[in-house]
């Protein structure tokens, strides 16, 4: 109870009644309103980001179901979502304590030492500031769910393996499938199970090998997951384009090819997000980057400052990263072989295996490995186990007061950092301005930061940021859409047009830039030019439901008094929602149009 209370207290200021960062896209009671069983089934056959018009190559249907259930429970009470995340973190902390305690006891540590050692180490896990993103971001609750599945599942599995092996392996298979459907980082579960069996048992190695052989049964849930994922993320067959030759001819020669919309959301600004899912394969060229990532992750867990949403790619000298980790792992092996103390090695093994899916050695060619707080939530369980091994050594060789005092001081320091980071997560503007001030590469945050300032009504600050980076904006910057809106709101129409046109030269923002430029030109009374830009938006957009949406916008903006054209626009919006029911912008546009036409919103459909 005390451990759970500590975990909750560390994030007691982490449940504001508002949404931040990725949550604005996924956590929306309007988006999930009216979701039924048939709609839930849809989550299993589409990309995670499908409702935003982007094919990300990510497949997490249980996360979407989890969020939709919360939307049904909390409606627009956003603090409820955050409260659930905090409680899940407390549950994860308790399960980490249980797993660490079990591993220590099976590593030869007496229960009188193992239990307090696991408890003190779990306190550090509970309050660690590197967990702030996973707890504060409802979208990244998926990482907490994976941690719960891995730690709770392994603890349950190891306790039943000897007495009921069939039940243990069957249950672990089910847990494995559920974990994979929450997030890809759960893929390491089979390797973790084998490692813990091998390191925490004392019977001869042939016996341990026989105990581990049923691990191949986990290929069944893995194969089922890969089949579902492959079906959901497979490129759709070419569909007839619902635009005329006149519209197609409106596209300049340099604007053909695959495009994706420039979302006004944080995730579009993240490096390494693919435009279309690609095959999973071994990426040997990623080894050096992965070694640097592992080294940077250890550094970040030991020294969590400064905390950022996104970090620069780890650039530590490769030889330092290799030698440091070899020394650490070598010491753990020495303790295991010479002193029969496997706990440290078990902790490091857990850390590396849990981090392996995020290392992108095996993965999609479009994804590049990168450090982020959210990917360290589950791997930090391994470091918690390593810390518990160190605390157990102190309790055996020193007075308990030394260990308790050290953990108390460390926890107070970590809690202060966690509370500070929780405060930054209370709004987009606070979070992104903080990261903008601390980050060396400020341009990677501009799309998100400018968009956040515009949503908050801080138009002057948005214009200031755009002016500071005006030269970079002219270099075909995708965040030109945001700067165009910032300039347009203040009446700087020439600058707005220039920003939009710069964004049309960037593949990630082309269609949305054309659409925003069209609306600006319509506002300025340049109707013919506006019509051409709307046509370009439709023609350059390859996502079907967004093509319908842009076609509707053209009719609504250019023919506001023509009922026939407005009814045609309504048909486009209905087709857009038929293709993607979760598209909030199309739903809101349809409701406004129905009100204008004298219909009854959704009932008029």
From TrEMBL:
Top-level taxonomic group: Bacteria
Bias (Basic and acidic residues) ranges: 260-270
Keyword Transmembrane helix: yes
InterPro entries: O-mannosyl-transferase_TMTC, TPR-like_helical_dom_sf
TM annotation in the entry: 57-74, 81-100, 138-158, 174-199, 211-228, 316-337, 344-363, 375-395, 402-420
Gene3D superfamilies: Tetratricopeptide repeat domain
Chain residue ranges for the region called Disordered: 251-276
Coiled-coil residue windows: none
Keywords linked to the UniProt accession: Membrane, Repeat, TPR repeat, Transmembrane, Transmembrane helix
Name of the protein this chain belongs to: Tetratricopeptide repeat protein
UniProt organism field: Elongatibacter sediminis
């Amino acid at each position: 109870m005390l451990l759970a209370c500590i975990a909750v207290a560390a994030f007691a200021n982490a449940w504001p009644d508002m949404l931040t960062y990725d949550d604005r896209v996924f956590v929306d009671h309007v988006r999930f309103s009216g979701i039924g069983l048939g709609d839930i089934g849809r989550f299993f056959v589409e990309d995670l980001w499908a409702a935003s018009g982007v094919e990300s190559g990510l497949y997490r249907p249980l996360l979407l179901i989890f969020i939709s259930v919360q939307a049904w429970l909390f409606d627009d009470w956003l603090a409820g979502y955050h409260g659930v995340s905090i409680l899940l973190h407390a549950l994860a902390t308790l399960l980490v304590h249980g797993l660490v305690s079990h591993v220590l006891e099976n590593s030869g540590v007496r229960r009188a030492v193992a239990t307090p050692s696991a408890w003190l180490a779990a306190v550090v896990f509970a309050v660690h500031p590197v967990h702030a993103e996973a707890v504060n971001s409802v979208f990244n609750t998926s990482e907490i769910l994976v941690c719960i599945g891995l730690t709770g599942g392994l603890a349950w599995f190891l306790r039943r393996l000897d007495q009921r092996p069939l039940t243990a392996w069957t249950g672990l298979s089910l847990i494995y499938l559920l974990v994979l459907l929450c997030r890809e980082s759960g893929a390491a579960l089979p390797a973790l199970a084998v490692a813990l069996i091998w390191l925490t048992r004392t019977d001869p190695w042939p016996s341990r090998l026989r105990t581990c052989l049923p691990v191949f049964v986990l290929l069944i849930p893995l194969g089922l997951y890969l089949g579902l994922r492959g079906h959901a993320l497979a490129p759709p067959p070419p569909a007839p384009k619902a635009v005329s030759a006149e519209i197609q001819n409106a596209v300049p020669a340099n604007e053909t090819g695959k495009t994706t919309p420039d979302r006004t959301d944080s995730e579009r600004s993240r490096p390494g997000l693919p435009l279309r899912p690609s095959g999973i394969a071994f990426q040997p060229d990623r080894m050096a980057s992965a070694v640097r990532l592992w080294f940077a992750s250890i550094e970040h867990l030991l020294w969590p400052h400064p905390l950022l949403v996104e970090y620069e790619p780890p650039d530590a000298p490769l030889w330092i990263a290799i030698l440091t980790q070899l020394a650490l792992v070598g010491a753990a092996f020495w303790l295991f072989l010479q002193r029969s103390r496997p706990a440290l090695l078990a902790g490091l093994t857990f850390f590396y295996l849990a981090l392996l899916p995020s290392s992108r050695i095996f993965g999609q060619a479009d994804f590049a490995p990168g450090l982020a707080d959210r990917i360290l939530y589950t791997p930090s369980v391994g470091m918690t186990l390593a810390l518990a091994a160190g605390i157990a050594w102190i309790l055996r060789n020193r007075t308990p007061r030394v260990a308790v005092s050290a953990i108390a001081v460390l926890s107070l320091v970590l809690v202060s950092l966690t509370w500070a980071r929780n405060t930054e997560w209370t709004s987009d503007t606070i979070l992104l301005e903080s990261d903008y001030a601390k980050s060396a590469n400020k341009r990677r945050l501009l799309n998100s930061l400018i968009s956040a300032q515009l949503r908050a009504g801080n138009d002057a600050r948005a214009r200031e940021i755009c002016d500071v980076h005006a030269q970079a904006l002219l270099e075909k910057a995708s965040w030109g859409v945001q700067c165009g809106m910032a300039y347009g709101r203040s009446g700087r129409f020439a600058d707005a047009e220039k920003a939009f046109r710069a964004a049309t030269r960037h593949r990630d923002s082309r269609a949305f830039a054309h659409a925003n430029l069209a609306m600006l030109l319509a506002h300025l009374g340049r109707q013919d030019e506006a019509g051409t830009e709307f046509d370009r938006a439709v023609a350059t957009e390859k996502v079907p439901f967004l093509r319908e949406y842009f076609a509707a916008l053209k009719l609504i903006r250019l023919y506001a008094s023509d009922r026939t054209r407005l009814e045609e626009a309504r048909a486009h919006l209905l087709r857009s929602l038929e293709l993607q029911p979760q598209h909030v912008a199309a739903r809101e546009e349809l409701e406004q149009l129905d009100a204008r036409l004298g219909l009854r919103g959704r009932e008029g459909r």
